[in-house]
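Standup, Tuesday
Yesterday: got the pipeline producing structure tokens again.
Today: sanity-check two examples.
Blockers: none.

Example 1:
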Amino acid sequence: MEKLQNYYRSFEKEMGYNRFDENSFQANQTFLLFIHMLLTTEVAEVAEEFRSMFDLSEKYLSEGYSDVEAMEMAKESIREDLGKELADCLAYILKLANYFEYDLETELYSKLEEIKRTRKKY
């Protein structure tokens, strides 16, 4: 994950992204609101792909395919577009992680361990 974060950081620099006055409250606020808007838009697009998948699976069911066949065919039909939307989400998550100087790999492992500990309590 560190490698991915570093790659994204280099990509942003190469593309000329993140050019704002980091010492300006207004510039930071605008940046964060913009990234929030973009990330939520991409998450909505992931949800839209799921809706398409469910609609397609219903169509395939009505055509006589089994539940499993219908779902597999619908999954395959959205596979490429869903991958692009997930990559968009990941890009904005990386952007935020880099902005806040998080090590996402450490954060993820920590969260998974927290879930294990919480789960063991019940």
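Example 2:
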Amino acid sequence: MFQLINRHSGKAVDVPGASTSPGTELIQYTPSEAANQQFRFIPLGSGVHQIRTTDGLSWDVSGGGTADGARIVQWNSTYADNQRWKVTDTGDGHVTLTCVRSGKVLGITDRSTSDGATLEQQTPDGSAQQQWRRVDR
């Protein structure tokens, strides 16, 4: 299990309220040891992973969207390309997470540093808000 901490905000990816409902939007929140901030990376080959919550739901680009701003939700695992994430090491202890379907990376809506800000896919720009540190839990 891993926790993911955003380089820009210092916040962790979080399933709000520890929801087990498909369609719940992922957010960032102050890091804790809680299970709703821990995720399993399932290797699918060639650096691609499916990322799952402790309840077995997968990270999913909502509706299979390919546009900037499409939100990241938890959803039943389908192994569709909008649930497949390429993990790329930045060389300094961080990674970027790129959705296979869209080629866009995981980032924070409006580059927010606030608790509760949603996660979305964005065109890669190399910024700190698109970089994540994986902490082994």
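Quick observation on example 2: The chain has no helices and twelve strands. The chain has a mean pLDDT of 98.
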